[in-house]
Write a structure and sequence with these properties.
alpha/beta, Rossmann fold, eight-stranded mixed β-sheet, five-stranded parallel β-sheet, 16 helices, elongated
Length: about 400
């Protein structure tokens, strides 16, 4: 397939809307469905049965999960209007005390599944699996895209340049689809490192339409640096950053990972609820340092914070940027202090990197023989071709 012939192909994703009278139950349902291995987009609403029909009209889900007290006989009558209006939608009803009579009445009005509340994870996910099979939605149209995050240990590390050009290097062969998402909400400028096009749509506009987000909408909202490398820019207005919530990220990354082979996240250097949600979804966390004492000190603090939050060191990958031989602090010194092996060393190449940044042109395109571009291409290659034993990180350590 030629790169110019690339088109983002639509792959079906199961849309699940959840309605519960209890905020606690709703959060529990969200966690259950998020743990499912299917390609799924989730929305959740707290409220009573009366809003089931408006919710279905707004979301147009494949599945509506309704968690109800089922306290009175009229409850099912309210739900019947919803099932009649949207016969193609599967309704799963959760009730605390489901009697045989309630089950019979529920089936009569078009409820497909009646389960106990609070929900049993196995029963709920099995019901969703039945829906997926009935709709002929593949469990995995292709292997879900791998999510990787880049974090700066200190300001000025060059993490955004590396994240953006790493994404471009992953897409360079033309056979892999790569999404770069700028989650540095206050000062994100990842798009500028790869393109001189001003973004027509940013992350905040996508979040405003999160309830109807699919692959087509996501692709149309991104800058197409190449046919296989797309960038979703950070909000232009700082005030819009507050619109983006951790639960929005669940849907965004689910859609992105369903349609891209790799999803690269530039997180800036803050640890907050949003970035932690991104790290939860990431298989690898690249930490960018330079070999100076302030960088190493901040990196040690960051590694401690990450491990304290439950992220294993196997998930953390150290990248030394702007390396020059003969410095006061060696790579071995840094590894000894940090208790962490360095995965990749990026050499210093100021002139080529500055030209790439100033022109908004990917480094591999502007200066394909530059050592920085070569190092990022090598890192991308090790990600694409993991070692047969020990995983791809062990392979990186050899470089």
């Amino acid at each position: 397939m030629k790169r110019d012939d690339f088109e983002l192909k639509e792959s079906r994703i199961l849309k699940v809307a959840m309605l519960s009278y209890s905020k606690e139950n709703l959060e529990s349902l969200r966690r259950m469905v998020s743990s499912w291995d299917g390609a799924v987009a989730i929305t959740g609403t707290e409220g009573d049965l009366e809003i089931a029909a408006p919710l279905a009209e707004q979301e147009h889900p494949d599945v509506l999960v309704v968690d109800s007290r089922c306290e009175h006989a009229g409850a099912l009558g309210v739900l019947e209007t919803t099932t009649a209006r949207y016969p193609a939608m599967t309704v799963i009803l959760l009730c605390p005390n489901a009697s045989p009579e309630l089950l019979r009445d529920a089936m009569r009005i078009g409820v497909r599944e009646l389960l106990p509340s609070p929900a049993d994870p196995h029963a709920l996910l099995t019901a969703l699996e039945r829906v997926r099979q009935r709709l002929d939605i593949s469990k995995s149209p292709r292997k879900a895209g791998r999510v990787m995050s880049w974090i700066a240990c200190k300001g000025g590390s060059g993490a955004t340049f590396l994240a953006s050009n790493f994404a471009n290097a992953l897409a360079a062969s033309g056979s892999k689809r790569v999404a770069l998402i700028d989650l540095n909400l206050q000062f994100g400028d990842a798009a500028l490192f790869l393109s001189d096009q001003p973004p027509q749509t940013t992350l905040s506009e996508v979040i405003r339409q999160i309830r109807r987000l699919d692959s087509a909408l996501l692709a149309s909202s991104m800058i197409h640096v190449t046919p296989t490398c797309h960038v979703l820019a950070a909000p232009e207005n700082l005030a819009e950053s507050g619109l983006i919530k951790p639960e929005h990220l669940d849907t965004l990354l689910s859609v992105a990972a369903s349609h891209y082979d790799y999803v690269v996240l530039d997180l800036g250097r803050s640890l907050d609820a949003l970035s932690l949600r991104a790290l939860d979804k990431s298989e690898t966390i690249f930490l960018v340092i330079q070999l100076t004492l302030p960088f190493i000190r901040d990196c040690k603090r960051l590694i401690h914070a990450l491990t304290s939050l439950g992220y294993s060191r196997d998930k953390i990958s150290l990248v030394v940027n702007r390396h020059e031989k003969g410095g006061d602090i060696t790579v071995q010194d840094a590894e000894r202090v940090l208790g962490q092996k360095v995965s990749k060393i990026i050499p210093n190449s100021y002139r080529a990197v500055a030209a790439s940044v100033n022109q908004g042109v990917p480094l591999l395109k502007l200066a394909p023989r530059d050592p920085v571009g070569k190092a990022l291409a090598e890192l991308a290659e090790t990600v694409e071709t993991p070692a047969k034993s020990g995983g791809w990180l062990r392979d990186i350590f050899r470089g």
